[in-house]
Amino acid sequence: MNKFEILKKYFGYDQFREGQEILIDAVLRGRDALGIMPTGAGKSLCYQVPALLFPGITLVISPLISLMKDQVQALNQAGVHAAYINSSLSENQIAKALALAAAGQYKIIYVAPERLETPGFLHFARQADISMVTVDEAHCISQWGQDFRPSYLKIVQFIRILPTRPVVSAFTATATERVREDILCVLGLKEPEILVTGFDRKNLYFVVETPRKKEAYVKDYVAAHPGDSGIIYCATRKNVDMLYQHLAAEGVPVTRYHAGLGNEERRRNQEDFIYDRAPVMVATNAFGMGIDKSNVRYVLHYNMPQSLENYYQEAGRAGRDGEPAECILLYSPQDVMVNRFLLESKEQNPEFTWEELAAIRERDEERLRVMNYYCMTKNCLRTYILQYFGEKGNGDCGNCGNCRKESVERDVTEAAGHIIDCILEMHGRYGINVVAGTLAGDNRAKLREYGVSGYPSYGSLKEMSEAGIKEIINQMLMEGLLAVTPDKYALLKVTKAAEEVRNSTRAVLLKEWKKEPETAEPAKKGKSAAGKRRSDILNSRGLELFERLRSLRTEIARQQNMPPYIIFSDKTLVDMCVKAPRNKAEMLQVTGVGENKFARYGERFLEEIASFTGGVPGKFYFGEWC
Q1: DSSP H helix total and E strand total for the chain
Q2: Residues 13, 592: contact at Cβ < 8 Å?
Q3: Which of 238, 319, 476, 482 is the most exposed place for a label (fewest CB within 10 A)?
Q4: Is the separation of the CB atoms in 312 and 199 below 8 Å?
Q5: Is 272 within 8 Å of 300 (Cβ atoms)?
Q6: H helices present in 128-168, as ranges
C-alpha cells in the first residue's frame, strides 16, 4: 500500500491537508521532522500514516493519559492496531501489552515520557524494531514552553540507548521561535524537515468583552446556545464551583473539572463531557490538554489566562472540526492581580537553580504583560496573536471582535510627551499607577509619601482621568515607546523610540470605539458571530436527516461506550446528508468514512438514510457543495 491508499482505507480521506504530505514524505525518506501546525490541522496523520508504512513500531511519546486513550481508541476504530502504556494500567497489563507489541501485534504505541526510564520498557525497546519515535506536544520539552515537563528532557537519552537510531519526529501547535529552537536542540534532530503551516485558525472568532457582571454574561450566553458543547475556563477552583452551581440551577447539562476534585470524580466528569452527557464544562486550566473533542462550539474565559500561549491553546479546543466557533475572553483589570498571585504561589521545581527560577519568573511576568495587552488592544486580535508567534497578520481579519467594531483615532501625541517627561523626571523609579496618578495631580497618601508633587509634570494632565492616562501608557508600551522592568514591579522606562515623539517626528494615535460593540451582548442576538457552519448548507429536510444521523451516532456511542465524535464527526454526518449514499461504494465517497469504519457502522447509517428517504433521491442542501 502507498500513503494515499492508507489515507483512504483507514482514515476515509481522499487527499492530504496543507503540509501533511511534506512531512510524511520526509519521514518516509528517513529524515527527522518538526511540524508546527495549528490545532485541527491533522498533525497526528503526519506520523500515523508513515507508521503504517514503516516495517517496525512507532513510539509516540505523549504527555497525557486522556490524549493517549482518545488517539488509541480512534485508531482501533479505524482498523489500526495501537496501544498505550501509562500509569492507568497495572504492571500486568503493561507487561502483556509489551509482549504483544514485541510479537508484532501493534504498529503504534503511545507512551508517557516517565515510562521511558523504567527497566521493563527499556528492555522492550532494546529488543524491538523501532522505526520511528514521535514526540507529541513537543513544546513540553522547552523551559520556555507553557507546559514544560522535565521528563521530556530524558527523551533524547532514551533515543541514544536504542541499538539503531530511529527517525525522530516532533509536533506541536503553539511554539514561539525560542521554543522551536529548544525542540530542535534538546531532541538533537538531524537535518530535519521543518514545517510551520501557520498558527491561524480561520474558523475561530476571537473577542474580548468587559461585562460588568461576568456571571450574568455567561448564563445568558449558555442559554442562547442550547445543545452546543462548550468549555468555560476559570482562574480559580472557587469560580469553577460557583459557575457550575449557578448553571446547574438553571437546568444546564453542565459538569466541572479542577484539581480539588477526587480522581474518580474528575474522570467521570471528563467522560460526561466527552460523551456529550454534559456538553458544557466549567474548569480550571487543569482540564483540556489532549482532549480531542471535535464539536466544541465555544470556549469562554471567565478570567484572563496567564499567557497568550495558554490562551491560544485553551481557546483552540473550540472548532477542531473546522466549523465556526467562538473564543470569548471576559476581562477585568483584577484578573492581572489574581494571576500575579497565582504565579507567586506556584510550586517551584526543585531541579531548577535559583538563577533558573529567577529567569522563569521574569518570563512569566513578561507573558502576563503580553496577555494583558491582548485584552486592552483595539487592533486586530488575530493579528496580535499571529505576530506573537512570529507570523505576519494582515491587520484586519474581519473575524474578531475588534475588526467588527467601528473606531476612530484620536491624536494623543501631546499627552504622550507629558508621560515621557514624567518618567524621565522620576528616573524610571515607578510603575504605571504612580506615573498616572502624578500626571493626573492626584493627592492620595501614597503619592504624598513619594513626594510626587515636586515633579514639574505633576498635574500636567489633570484634565484627564487616571484610567485615560493609563490607556495611553499601555498604547505606548504596545508600540515600544515605553518598556517595563522584567519583574513584578514593572517600573516604567523610556525607550530610544520615544525620541521620535519628543522631536515631533512620530505621532501617537489612540483608537476609540465609535459606537456600542457589535458583540456586546452576543447572547441576545441569537446568532453566532463566528460565521456559517457546514450544517448551514443543509435545507430543512437535510437538517432533519442530520439530526436523525446524530441520534443514531449517539445511540451507537452509548452502546460501545465511546465518544460520538470517534464514530463519525459532524463534518462526516453533514457530508452524508449532502451525498445521501445508497450503497457501500457511495458511502465510501463520504469524507471520513474508511473501509474499517464502514465495516463497523456503514450499514446502520445506510439503513437510516434509506429509511428517511424511502429510497427516493432528493436534494437536502442549498446551492453548491464543496
Answers
A1: 27, 17
A2: yes
A3: 238
A4: yes
A5: no
A6: 155-161
The answer to whether the beta carbons of residues 411 and 481 sit under 8 Å apart is: no
How far apart are alpha carbons 242 and 235 in whole angstroms? Answer: 12
Average confidence (pLDDT) over 544-569: 89
Helices 308-315 and 354-376: angle between axes, nearest 10 degrees: 60
Cα distance between residue 26 and residue 30, in whole Å: 7
Find the domain containing 586 and state its range: 534-613
Q: Report the alpha-carbon distance of residue 393 to residue 385 in Å, rounded.
A: 9
Whether residue 521 lies inside any domain: the answer is: no
pLDDT at 523: 44
Q: Which residues pair with 194 in a beta bridge?
A: 34
Crossing angle of the two packed helices 3-11 and 20-28, in degrees rounded to 10: 120
First to last CA, the chain: 28
d(CA 16, CA 12): 11
Pairing label, strands 325-330, 204-209: parallel
Do 413 and 489 lie in one domain? The reply is yes
Q: In the 8-state DSSP scheme, what is residue 601?
A: I
CATH number at residue 579: 1.10.150.80
pLDDT at 536 over 90: no
Name the residue with cell 479505524: 78
Residues contacting residue 467 through CB under 8 Å, at least 6 positions apart: none
Task: Select from 163, 562, 96, 166 the least CA-distant residue to 83.
Answer: 96
Lowest mean pLDDT among 55-64, 227-236, 558-567: 558-567
- Whether residue 41 is found in the same domain as residue 183: yes
Is residue 185 helix, strand or coil? helix
CB contact at 8 A, 625 and 590: no
| pLDDT exceeds cutoff 80 at 409 | yes
The grid coordinates of residue 251 equal: 437546568
At 146, the pLDDT band (50, 70, 90 cuts) reads low
Write out pLDDT tens, residues 165-215. 999 999 988 777 888 888 998 898 999 999 988 788 889 999 999 999 999
**Rounded to an integer, what distance in angstroms lies between the CA atom of residue 592 and that of residue 49?**
15
For the stretch 279-335, pLDDT in tens is: 999 999 888 766 778 889 999 999 999 999 889 989 989 998 888 999 999 999 889
Under DSSP, is residue 496 helix (H, G, I), strand (E, B) or coil? helix
**Which residue in 570, 575, 577 sits closest to 295, CA to CA?**
570
**258, 190: one domain:** no
Q: Which has the higher per-residue pLDDT, 529 or 142?
A: 142
The verdict on residue 167 lying in a domain is: yes
> Is residue 522 assigned to a domain?
no
Query: Does 228 fall in a domain?
Result: yes
Q: Which of 114, 116, 131 is nearest to 58 (CA)?
A: 131
CA distance to 74, 361, 482, 491, per residue, from 487 (Å): 45, 8, 15, 8
Smallest CA-to-CA distance from 34 within 48, 49, 19, 16 is with: 19
Rounded Cα gap, residues 102 and 52, in angstroms? 16
Tell me the Cα Rg of the chain: 27
* DSSP category for residue 347: P
pLDDT tens per residue across span 91-111: 899 889 999 988 889 999 999
Query: Cβ(205)–Cβ(400) under 8 Å?
Result: yes
Q: Residue 291 corresponds to which cell in the numbers above? A: 482532549
pLDDT at position 532, please? 64
